[in-house]
């Protein structure tokens, strides 16, 4: 008995005849698949890549949002503190923050879509 319970046949409560078949049965039973094309190893890979893609996408969106908000806040502070003289610099920093945030959102969406095999 190297893998799994009762591979010697006693008290065996599953239909698989090998550890590989048992693992495949378990993957098919637990992963939320959408169609018959999403079963077995392919479905398991889609489940894992979707989870990883969503996680990385969420982190990217969070970082982009923080950088964007920081850029807007810094830009508005410079504009408020310096008046018309610093307004172009403040607006440029705000614009840069907005650009980073928008870029991060687009990249994050692409990562999530790739994780879903779109």
Q: Give the N-terminus to C-terminus distance in angstroms.
A: 41 Å
The number of E-state strands comes to: 0
Largest sheet: none
What is the overall shape? rod-shaped
Residue-averaged pLDDT: 77
Q: Could you explain how this protein is built, in words?
A:
The structure is a single chain. This protein has 118 residues and is an all-alpha fold. Helix content is 71%, strand content 0%. The protein contains three helices and no strands. It has helices at 19-30, 40-82, 87-115. Helix 1 (19-30) packs across helix 2 and helix 2 runs antiparallel to helix 3. The mean pLDDT is 77.
Which characteristics define this entry?
3 helices; 118 residues; mainly alpha
In short:
The protein is mainly alpha-helical and 118 residues long. 71% of the residues lie in helices and 0% in strands.
Secondary-structure blueprint:
Layout: H1 19-30, H2 40-82, H3 87-115
Helix pairs in contact: 1-2, 2-3
